[in-house]
Amino acid sequence: xxxxxxxxxxxQQIPSAGPNYQxxxxxxxxxxxxxxxxxxxxxxxxxxxxxxxxxxxxxxAIVGREHLRDPYFTLHAAEELGAEDRVExxxxxxxxx
Length: 97
Ligand SMILES: Cc1cc2nc3c(=O)[nH]c(=O)nc-3n(C[C@H](O)[C@H](O)[C@H](O)COP(=O)(O)O)c2cc1C
What we know:
Blueprint: E1 2-3, H1 23-32, E2 38-39, H2 46-54, E3 60-61, H3 65-69, H4 73-80
Parallel strand pairs: 1-2, 2-3
């Protein structure tokens, strides 16, 4: 389950838009259900996403706007976290790696 507050209605009162700002919503849904829960909201650093999972705050980290800034964020994050063997660059890009 992807827990997003949306932010698409002008009357919404979302407290802040800083790092991890929607993660508490995912935590609450995770505690209340047996569903696998993904957290979104202000995740822009590989170590930040990694910590969310390691600290059991969510089952997976979802990265929105950072993927608009860096479409290869996942690949770059894997490299930064030393997990290159867990992801694969598109075949066409291998010569550039
Ligand atoms: C282009 C764009 C479209 C979005 N569309 C939706 C949407 O249709 N429904 C929704 O619940 N959230 C939508 N969101 C909000 C995201 O799900 C997410 O809550 C928000 O971008 C915060 O995560 P981020 O900091 O990783 O971007 C959208 C965000 C962006 C940038």
